[in-house]
Amino acid sequence: MVDILVIGGGIHGVAVARDAARRGLETLLLEKGDLASATSSRTSKLIHGGLRYLENGQIRLVREALRERAILLHTAPEFVRPLPFLLPHYAGRGRARWWVGAGLALYRLLAGGAAERSGVAAEEALRLAPGLDPADLRGGSLFADAQMDDAALCVALAVDAERAGATIRTHTEAIALATTADGRSWRAHFHDRITGTDAEVEARAVVNAGGPWVDEVRAMAEGHPPPCVRRTRGAHVVFAATPPRTALLLTARRDGRVFFVIPWGTHTLAGTTDVDDASDPGAVEPHAEDVRYLLEESAAALPGALAGARPVRAFAGVRPLARGRAERPWENSRESRVLVERGLWTMVGGKYTTHRALAERVVNGIVRALGARVAPCVTASLPLKSGRAESIERLRRDFPRAAEVAGGFRISEAEVAHAARVEKARRLDDILLRRTRLWLDARALREAAVPCAVWAAPVLGWSERTRSAEVERLLAILDREERAIDAAAGSGQAERGTRGIA
Ligand SMILES: Cc1cc2nc3c(=O)[nH]c(=O)nc-3n(C[C@H](O)[C@H](O)[C@H](O)COP(=O)(O)OP(=O)(O)OC[C@H]3O[C@@H](n4cnc5c(N)ncnc54)[C@H](O)[C@@H]3O)c2cc1C
């Protein structure tokens, strides 16, 4: 019997597992794929208050997100770092300068900061983002936010949860869930998708952190509950082009939506889109029209840097939004909701940025409901340290090989061994897409696939057949992505507006 069973190893599930384990609760987390393999590795990788949410009046969300941003910058500097943003102003288009100025003043106020001058002249805006369209540029506004490596943060929280005593099982799906005969606890049946083994567990409370699948998990427990999630697809593309010196908050010309162009090391990330998507969240991929939208808007905003540039990655994720009344997906509230149904705690909506606070709220509720006597929540002040670099350094003696791959990246055998031994990776894409920086560039991923599979095989006990299958699987993901890029890059502007990303 465990105190808490967590279903889902995205950011919300691992945050609950870490908080619960740190308070001394016996915790088991089941993740049917890899940690962060669904929404939590497909984000814009921002820890931000969300300036644009002020336009929809989501003041409470922005205030909470800014508070959490400060906490994460303080407790997890290895994963979250400050990122300056520039919002360029053009004559006759985009948001009016006075409107942006008022929004930024409120943003700073909500972050507990003082009002300060944020305006820059057009020359300075061009120095910060040399590729910007200079025509009618009147200057820009600067503000501060933060950037993270989403999958790395999620994995580090899971490893820390394990250090605190939680059990984390990846590639293990909860397949049945029912209350026990006396109605006081839960019995869950689960299936390891790699070994094919099944097992059962009893839990005093169950947390449903299934992200886009929260309604499927609720249905296992309850029959046919009315849906609580709205799924919208968001895509990103990555360019190998020299990144701007600051991130850019831009207005899409096609539909007036906000989108970002963000420096990511040597690469540039652009996103995102927002379209309702009722298809299987497990099979989400960028559509050609998503990629086309991002290519057109990025090229229009930064013609000097991105016109005609071909992305080196394209990826998409599904937002598990708490279903609201807004008609247009991007106007749906990003606030979180916690549903408590006969002792099943479902987390829906919310932002990556606010994961810690939401986890604290859920664990507080469960502690009260169970009448458990446990230590108080410590996650607002507990430093998150991975020890990754030191561990990889130690492994170099036994795992000495390394390879230089495209895009200026390097991958080492010790990194692969660490991913498999410590970071709970069990498949090749777990290692390459979510434990290394190679996610930025498909060319690097293709080149690294075979050597990494060779290095991972003895650590993970793969036969030669499994090794080849793992390489094929990764290449198939990259091939599908490439086809979406080809379709978008090949069709140019011709279909603009025919099926609004809007
Ligand atoms: C395009 C895009 C950009 C975004 N950008 C940002 C951003 O920049 N900043 C920000 O703060 N937020 C951002 N978000 C929002 C943020 O990513 C999400 O709020 C967050 O990742 C949701 O995490 P989650 O844990 O709820 O869901 P997920 O990450 O989807 O995790 C749910 C997990 O549950 C598992 N699961 C489901 N059913 C079962 C089962 N039966 N058994 C076992 N496991 C199961 C799934 O495999 C999955 O891994 C963005 C979202 C998208 C889509």
Distance between the termini: 48 Å
**What's the count of strands?**
20
Note the main sheet.
10 strands, mixed
Bound molecule types = flavin-adenine dinucleotide
Per DSSP, the total helix count is 14
Shape: globular
Helix content: 25-40%
- Report the portion of residues in β strands: 25-35%
Main structural class:
alpha+beta
Radius of gyration from the alpha-carbon trace, in angstroms:
23 Å
Query: What's the average pLDDT?
Result: 94
Which ranges are low-confidence, i.e. pLDDT below 50, for 5 or more consecutive residues?
492-502
Please describe what this structure looks like:
By secondary structure, the protein is of the alpha+beta class. It contains 14 helices and 20 strands. It has helices at residues 11-22, 59-75, 97-110, 122-128, 150-163, 214-222, 288-301, 303-306, 355-370, 388-395, 413-421, 428-434, 442-460, 464-491; strands spanning 2-7, 27-30, 46-47, 80-90, 119-120, 137-148, 167-169, 172-179, 186-192, 198-208, 229-239, 247-251, 258-264, 267-271, 275-276, 313-322, 336-341, 344-349, 402-405, 409-412. The strands form 3 sheets. Strands 3, 4, 5, 6, 11, 12, 13, 14, 15 and 16 form a 10-stranded mixed sheet that branches. A hairpin with a 2-residue loop joins strand 13 and strand 14 (267-271). Helix 11 packs across helix 13 (442-460) and helix 13 (442-460) runs antiparallel to helix 14. The longest helix is centred in the C-terminal third of the chain and has 28 residues, at 464-491. It is globular. The termini are far apart. Mean pLDDT is 94; it is low at 492-502.
Describe the structure using short key phrases.
ten-stranded mixed sheet, single chain, 502 residues
